[in-house]
Amino acid sequence: MNRKVTIVMYHYVRDLASSRFPAIKGLTIERFVRQLDYILTNYSPIAIEDLFKAISSPDKHLPPNPILLTFDDGYSDHFLNVFPLLEERGIKGCFFPPAQAVLEHRVLDVNKIQFVLASVSNPSMLLTEVFDAMGEFREEHSLKSREDYLVAITEKHRYDPPEVTILKRLLQRELPEKVRAELVRRLFGKHVTSDEKAFAEELYMSVEQISCIRRQGMHIGSHGYSHAWLDHLSPQGQAEEIDRSVKFLRELGADMDQWTICYPYGGFNESLLELLQDRGCTFGFTVEARMADLNVDGRLTLPRIDTNDLPS
User: Fold this and answer.
1) What confidence tens digit (pLDDT) does each residue in 57-114 have?
2) Taking the C-alpha atoms of 311, 202, 161 and 305 in order, what is their torsion angle to the nearest 10 degrees?
3) Model pTM?
4) Which DSSP symbol is given to 25?
5) What gap in Å lies between CA 56 and CA 268, rounded to an integer?
6) Phi/psi zone of residue 200: left (φ > 0), alpha (ψ -120 to 50 degrees), beta?
7) Which of 46, 58, 60, 304 has the most C-beta neighbours closer than 10 Å?
8) Residue 254 pairs with which residues in a beta bridge?
9) Domain 4-105+204-309: top CATH class
10) E-strand spans in 183-222?
């Protein structure tokens, strides 16, 4: 009996060449259309309800080569470019908007960093700019030296060169929260725009748009409240993030009997999994790049492949 599912992760889907930020890492609409054609030829698209039925009953059959499409971060791309193409083909996607970006019209730090990188041709220059600015905070926040941070950040990223990976890790995780937020705010204001609210209103779906795609059968799940690294928060901090995001889903009219979460940055730990279990979360989606096996993988730790892993 087939119990394996391909779950695909998408982010930006836009006409990159004609956009204000052609260097942003995303999928062109043309490539997305080709990929959908490939999917319909080689896979059987399923909805989240099909996955729920399959994981709830070992005897439940899935169609041949089942595939589930997921879309992170709640971009307006998803309403303007993705939703009509899915509707046209009868595909039900899963969308994970971070509540804070939608409700407060604030640009997530992860997106600020992406658009800064898309605005500056030399990432090494940005890294130098960050290290220079860190001197202002070193004594108050006991920051380490440049050399110590370079030694500490050894991980590699599938799609980023080393200097970009180091920059992202400094501004997303390694530096104290107050320092990270201030440095990202400065970089975004200098290299992208000083009008964050207007940028956020353009970048993310509105409540009305999210409600519209939900009414048309698309699944809306949690992506946390502020897109924080959930595995770096205390249990109390995790509970606050999850509860605020669940409140957002409930107000959108989402089906709370089958609510799901897509972990920001793919970060989770045991305390978070216990919390989600207690809150009745149905599925948790990670960024581990492989096919999901319902006979092996836990329902809160389902892997997903990146869109770049599929032909287009």
Assistant:
1) 877 788 999 999 999 999 999 999 999 999 999 999 999 999 999 999 999 999 999 9
2) -30
3) 0.94
4) -
5) 23
6) alpha
7) 304
8) none
9) alpha beta
10) 219-220
